[in-house]
Design a protein that fits this description.
heterodimer; A: 113 residues; 50% strand; B: mainly beta; 6-stranded mixed β-sheet; 5-stranded antiparallel β-sheet; 11 strands
């Protein structure tokens, strides 16, 4: 089944403890992206990647890192999480050249205390 | 001001009703437009693209007015299963997508 898989689905952590949210897609998509969703704000892009070893900042990159060493994986790293990073996170992918039809992962609900 | 604005609702309608949502966008250079549906605590899923000529998919009709910079979604004969949050999405270029905060719809028996 074609899908984007995120892990974990739920995570509660403490301020300052490094964490990684994994994202993997099996559709050979070039473009991958991370979003966070907060009430009243909609989805905001954190980072995106147009292909292997090519990453760029979105609208809200502060406090996050990403890497794209392989086409299928695009992990999101929080080196020192803070409570304002408590949010619902989505990974998404789309083939190069296609516009708009993102496939999203199931989401990761992160709480930083 | 947000780049994509939607009325958050909630819209509470009875089964069988017709309901319409509007969305406005501020960037006149935006190139393509979409409606996504998001069920509670789930991921967004593409509902339909929006074309200048308007387009229909079953009970759903989407329209775009570039001059006034707004997009609409009309749902006819609402079903209980239409209850969800509807996200207006505007693509600036190369998948630089801007999401509205969503309009919540509840269809009641």
């Amino acid at each position: 089944e074609a899908q984007v898989t995120q892990n974990p689905r739920y995570l509660i952590t403490v301020t300052g403890k490094k964490l990684t949210v994994t994202c993997s897609q099996n559709m050979n998509h070039e473009y991958m992206s991370w979003y966070r969703q907060d009430p009243g704000l909609g989805l905001r892009q954190i980072y995106y990647s147009m292909n292997v070893e090519v990453t760029d900042k979105g609208d809200v990159p502060e406090g996050y890192k990403v890497s794209r060493k392989e086409k299928r994986n695009f992990p999101l790293i929080l080196e020192s999480p803070s409570p304002n990073q408590t949010s619902l996170y989505f990974c998404a992918s789309i083939p190069r050249g296609m516009i708009g039809g993102y496939t999203f992962g199931s989401g990761t609900r992160l709480t930083v205390v | 001001r947000k780049e994509v604005e939607q009325d958050p609702g909630p819209f509470n309608v009875p089964e069988g009703a017709t309901v319409a949502f509007n969305c406005t966008y501020s960037n006149s250079a935006s190139q393509s437009f979409f409606w996504y549906r998001q069920d509670c605590r789930k991921e967004p899923k593409l509902l339909m693209s929006v074309y200048s000529s308007g387009n229909e998919d079953g009970r759903f009709t989407a329209q775009l007015n570039r001059a006034s910079q707004y997009i609409s979604l009309l749902i006819r004969d609402s079903k209980l299963s239409d209850s969800a949050t509807y996200l207006c999405v505007v693509n600036r270029n190369n998948n630089d997508m801007r999401f509205g905060a969503g309009t919540r719809l509840t269809v009641k028996p």
